[in-house]
Specification:
By secondary structure, this protein is an alpha+beta fold. Helix content is 21%, strand content 30%. The protein contains 6 helices and 8 strands. It has helices at 4-13, 93-108, 114-121, 233-237, 244-256, 262-265; strands spanning 55-68, 73-85, 129-137, 144-149, 163-172, 182-189, 195-203, 217-228. Strands 1-2-3-4-5-6-7-8 form an 8-stranded antiparallel barrel. Helix 1 (4-13) packs antiparallel against helix 2.
Amino acid sequence: MLTSSILALVAVVLGYADALPSKGHLSTSCDLSHARLQVPANQTQLIAPTYAPNFIGIGVGTQNYTCNATDSTYALVGALAEIFDCSCLYGTAAFESAPTTVYDAWSASTGITIQDVITTLRLTHDPAVLGQHYYVPNPVGSGLSPKWDFTSSGMTAGKPNAYVTGAKIGDLPSSNSSNIDDLMVKAVKGGLAKEVFRVETNGGQPPKQCGTGDSNITVKYSAQYYFRVLPMKTALDHPTVDETPVVLSLISILYNIPSSSQKAGNIKPQAR
């Protein structure tokens, strides 16, 4: 049975569902042309873009860890999360508080999985799911890389290039030791975004130490994600220039370019 906290989560994420425009928008459910990411001052790890994002989402899920027997600490081995569209919250008081409110509901829940949350969301007329976040083998090196996959949800469903696999280029620790870091990620594969920012994080950090024989663990978290495709500098610097080619190029990047590597990269870790 769904707890009251999950119902609260649904209310926060979909509180603006009735205000959603028709599905003619190419990137996200509500207008983000005036949206700007704000980053903390006096740091150089996160460089805020001066242009609007194409998507803003709230990630709800788990960070996954295994015990490193060498130093008895937990090492990240992946993540598994659903990304909900929160673009319609931008410019409202709920936008700033939503990641924390969602996390409070998610972390307080027992006997509830992300799939249960999604099932509940689908009882509404618009589930507002952008896609999924998980890790895949690094497409340009060793180890694992984060992937945001929008190929099966919303306006990008069925579009093989609507994903991004990235590499971290900025890492800003949270002032709260229980929260995972804010990140700036550049794309190395896929057409969904050129940059991804993870901010407003809640939870996700493992215990400081583990012991021999400790099993793999999952730690619940939430975060806000900004996805940027490209700044459209030509259109911005030259207002009289016909923007049609730029827009058509953007549509092609996001939706119409097949990717032969997508099948190989579509490996989702299982939540434990």
